[in-house]
Amino acid sequence: MSLLSVRDLTVKFASRDGAMAALNGISFDLARGERLGIVGESGAGKSITGFALMNLLSKPGFIDGGEILFEGEDVTQMSPKQVRDMRGNRMAMIFQDPMVTLNPVLTIGQQMVETLRAHRNLSFEEARQIALVKLKEVYIPSPDERLDQYPHELSGGMRQRIIIAMALLLDPKLIIADEPTTALDVTIQADIMELLLEMCQSNQVGLILITHDLGVVSQVTERTMVMYAGRIIETGATRSIINDPQHPYTQGLINALPQQTPPGQRLKQIPGAMPTLSAMPTGCPFHTRCAHVTDECKRTAPEVSQFGDTAVACHEVHRLQRDLPKEVAQ
User: Fold this and answer.
1) CA-to-CA distance for 82 and 12, rounded, in angstroms?
2) Given this model, what pLDDT does residue 109 score?
3) Labelling 208: which of 32, 152, 174, 180 has CA 20 to 30 A away?
4) pLDDT for res 320
5) Do the beta carbons of residue 204 and residue 33 sit within 8 Å?
6) Mean pLDDT by 10 residues, the chain (330 residues)
7) Torsion of CA 42, 45, 191, 257, to 10 degrees
8) 65 forms bridges with which residues in the sheet?
9) Domain coverage including residue 266
10) Quick one: pLDDT at residue 149?
């Protein structure tokens, strides 16, 4: 049995003009200990997917249909108490800004101890010792001192390490990391992603990494899912997606990487912009930006079909001639 099985998940946002779909019937599976990357531009539905999996959607957003089976239990049908027991305990989320996650008026130790005691029958000292061990695991220097410090007294990289430690406090089966290194500089980003990968591998924790950075995905994940306008348009082994993309949108993302452009030349970009929820085109949502668009693309949304090592939602995938370099990933 898969650790996570999502089937036909639809998320909508209520508005005066009617409900608008932010996720449109997405389906995917995650095996125990597997690392999955979700990539796409802003507005593709990546973060909404993460929030829906954690049952963290707030109004006007709501799950309109489908199943989220986590260890065989449907998250969409859980009671509020069951959801509280699941969050942090069995499924944890790392957000892109640690200052949003951490309470500024409580010390790091207070926050970690409260988290542990909310889910485990532990004394204060027992919880503090576990917190200390977790800080050591993520290579926090002088962990005893850090427990008694406030978030604003720590650097951005230190705060993100503490968020990872807090996510691992209760030994969850799945971690959802939503752009976990966005606010950090490049060298610290690499350290944090290496740490997250190490923690997941050593603890056999499933990981869903939500990011727009294909370089990070190529280094950390085993499988990649490309999203566009609330749909999954391509999924497969990460190496296959990076080195031999099939969908025109994925090809555009690869072509836009800086290393794909010779020095001194303008960076390549995908023309146009992601459609808004209120102005979603008919047929394939990417057809307004696609160089290979046909009348069929404008009329009907493509079904997902297997092409080589990847599953692709494109009418023209069998016809397209690809000329991407085959050695993009390092």
Assistant:
1) 23
2) 96
3) 152
4) 66
5) yes
6) 93 93 95 95 94 93 96 93 90 85 94 93 95 92 94 91 91 92 77 87 92 88 96 96 93 89 88 92 94 93 88 86 43
7) -50
8) 10
9) 251-312
10) 96
How crowded is residue 329: how many other Cβ atoms within 10 Å of its Cβ? 15
**b/e string for 192-224 if b means 16 or more Cβ within 10 A?**
bbebbbebbeeeebbbbbbbbbbbbbbbbbebb
Q: Is there a contact between 112 and 165 (Cβ–Cβ < 8 Å)?
A: yes
Which amino acid belongs to residue 294? T
Rounded to two decimals, the pTM is 0.91
In a domain, 238, yes or no: no
Q: Answer for the pair 38, 207: CB distance below 8 angstroms, yes or no.
A: no
Give the pLDDT confidence score for residue 214 in this predicted structure: 87
Does any domain span residue 236? no
CA separation for the pair 282, 238 (Å, rounded): 29
For residue 60, cis peptide bond before it (omega within 30 degrees of 0): yes
User: Which pLDDT score, from 0 to 100, does residue 216 have?
Assistant: 87
Give the pairing of strands 4-13 and 91-94: unpaired
Q: Which two tokens mark 220? A: 């950390």
| CATH code of residue 56 | 3.40.50.300
Residue 250: CA count within 13 A, CB half-sphere? 30
Cis peptide leading into residue 80 (ω within 30°): no
